Every structure is written in C-alpha cells, then in structure tokens.
Amino acid sequence: MKSDRLLSILLLLQTRGRVPAHELAGRLEVSVRTIYRDVEALSASGVPVYAERGRHGGIELLAGFRTDVTGLTADESRALFILAAQGAHAALGLDAALGSALRKVMAALPAPHRPAAEVTSRRILVDATRWKGGPQRAVDLEVLQDAVFTDRRLRLRYRHSGDAEPRTYTVDPYGLVSKAGVWYLVADRRGKPRLFRAERVRTATLLPDPVRRRPGVELGAVWEVLRRQVEERPGGLDVTVRVQRSRLDMFLRLNAAALAALPEDDGESEWVAAHLSYGVLGEARTLLAFGDTVEVLGPPEVREELASTAAAIGAVYAGDREGAHLPGAAR
Q1: What is the dihedral of CA 199, 180, 75, 221, to 10 degrees?
Q2: Residue 242 pLDDT > 50
Q3: What does pTM read for this prediction?
Q4: Residues 30-36: what's their mean pLDDT?
Q5: What one-character DSSP code corresponds to residue 322?
Q6: Residues 309, 298 contacting (CB under 8 angstroms)
Q7: What is the distance between the alpha carbons of residues 308 and 329, in angstroms, rounded to a whole number?
Q8: For the residues of 198-246, what is the DSSP string, one character each?
Q9: 156-208, pLDDT tens digit by residue?
Q10: How many CB atoms lie within 10 A of CB 235?
Q11: If phi over 0 gives left and psi between -120 and 50 gives alpha, with beta otherwise, what is residue 188?
Q12: For 232-329, where are the alpha helices, taking DSSP H only?
C-alpha cells in the first residue's frame, strides 16, 4: 500500500539521514521513479523532504525535523511483541531495555491493537535452544559486542574443537549471530571470512586499531557465505543403509544432516532404504548407535569399519582390553 510505503520512507529518512533514491527503491522493492513520486507526495502533505541529485545526492528531511510516528498495523504490533520471547537479548544484557521499549511501544499503539499485542506476548513463546542440548559453557559477549559496535579489531585466544590448546587470532568483526541458541562471531581474518563459536573464545582483547572490513560487505552477506560452507560441505562417501520401520522417525531426525535424499517409503515394508553422505569414513560410526535396527548395505569399506569397531567395543565389555583398539586409534 502507498500509505505504508510513505511511512516507511519517512522512518528510514529519520533514522538514516540522507539516503540515495536507488537504495530506498531497492529496500521498498519499487522503481526509483516511484520513490521520487512518493517524495513529492510527502512534500505536498507538509513533510519537509527534498532530493539532491548527483553523485553524492540523495533524499533527506530538513535538519531538525522529527515526527512521532505510531501508525503500526495489527500484524506489525504482534510481530514486535514476539521479540520479547526470542531470548537473544538476554545474552546481550538487553533484557531490561527490551522490556522498557515494549512498554513504550504498547503505550504508543493505536488503542484497537493493544489487546492483540498483549495476548501475543502471553500466548507465543520462542525457545531457540535444542532439546537435550547438554550443558553449555557460559558465554561472555561483552568484549565481542564492544568490538562490533565500536568498529575495532579483536585479538582472540580461541580453542578449536579437537585442539588441546587455544590459538591466537587478530580479526576484523562484522557482527554477532545467534543460531539455534548458539552465539557466533562473524569476522575476517587476513581478509577471509571466518566463523568463531563464542563459547570457545578463551580471551578477547579489544585493540585500538579500527576494523578493516572489505568495502561494501555487510554482516548478512558474510554470514550467508559461511552458513553455506557449513551446510553444503560436500560429502565424500555415499552410504546405503536399511532402517527398521520402528526406528525410522528417530533415524531421520538424528541423521538429517547426512541424508542425501528422503527415503522412498511405501508405508508397509518392515525395512526402509536410505542414502547418506559422509565427509570421512569415521563419521559412519554414529550408525552403531542404532544397533541391529540399521544395517549398512554398502560400500564394503563402511561395513568393515563398523564391524571392526563393534568388535573392539565388544572386547572392552568382555574384559579383553588387549583386543579393544578402535580402528584408527593410537596403539
């Protein structure tokens, strides 16, 4: 709707100052010509807005002009109050600030929308943590936040999974990302994007040097690159298994990341075939957790790996520790 678009332009100009017409057009998904028509409409309604053309031009409000805009729709009001259930603000130390902000928003809402917003905050709960995620190490985000908001470089002492000792890195932060209740620092190291899990940061030191980000690159773009690297990591080992129907649902949930495709299930057979893709041979050992309800059909090297691993485990519980070496373990 045009009225919503005019309100969005006004809010963006109040927040950002001068904004190029092409940027407004991109954010609102309209043409530049439409943006200029909207500016004329705002001006005709008494809003002191003007456009400057040229390389450094843009659309801007007259200096000092502010308006108290409260024209939220019912859906927008509900969306704001669902924010209170996200949980990310707690780790950032913003619990009290969010509560105060939402009370102010509630007071400013049009009277007909207030009951719906209040009910939403009581009826919708978002818990970003996974079931049985296990105890999590306490994460101190204070220094990481300082670096992100003050545009400063960071020196990290960071322990990678599997490393006994932390390593030292100097990084250029783009921002913080909370994914499924886990905080990550997104940063460049020597001009290349890197992902650092916040709970593995042993120490973080704010450096006096200004951050050195790649020109024109924003947090969202860097996160998308890193997310794809993690989720689309190519598997080097294709494995075919058959799963007993009684365990199929659990098998699919626990192996979702390795599934090459959803299994073809006729809904009747006792066994269902599934295809998995692993990066290395050792990853297939997780299938042993399903005991005799999952059988690897191929390739042969995976069957041999699981058979020898199962034999080594059996030797441990039989008391034969001499023969209990797992494949690949130090002897």
Answers
A1: 70
A2: yes
A3: 0.59
A4: 91
A5: G
A6: no
A7: 12
A8: GGGEEEEEEEEEEP-PPTT--HHHHHHHHHHHHHTPPPSEEEEEEEEGG
A9: 999 987 788 999 999 999 999 988 778 899 999 999 999 999 989 999 999 99
A10: 15
A11: beta
A12: 248-254, 300-318
Give alpha helix (H) positions in the chain: 2-16, 21-28, 32-44, 74-82, 88-91, 95-108, 114-123, 142-150, 219-231, 248-254, 300-318
Question: Whole-angstrom Cα distance, residue 37 to residue 39?
Answer: 5
Instruction: Report which of 39, 78, 45 is spatially closest to residue 61, judged by C-alpha positions.
Output: 39
Task: Please answer whether residues 278 and 284 qualify as being in contact, where contact means their C-beta atoms are separated by less than 8 angstroms.
Answer: yes
Task: Note whether 252 and 259 are within 8 A (CB).
Answer: yes
Tally of residues, the chain: 331
Q: Which amino acid is at 159?
A: R
For the record, the structure tokens of 156 come out as 């990290």
Supply 91's token pair: 């780790």
Average pLDDT over residues 266-282: 88
Report CA dihedral (197, 199, 202, 206) to the nearest 10 degrees.
70
> How far, in Å, CA of 153 to CA of 212, rounded?
8
Long-range contacts of 305-310 (CB under 8 A, 24+ apart): 305/281, 309/285
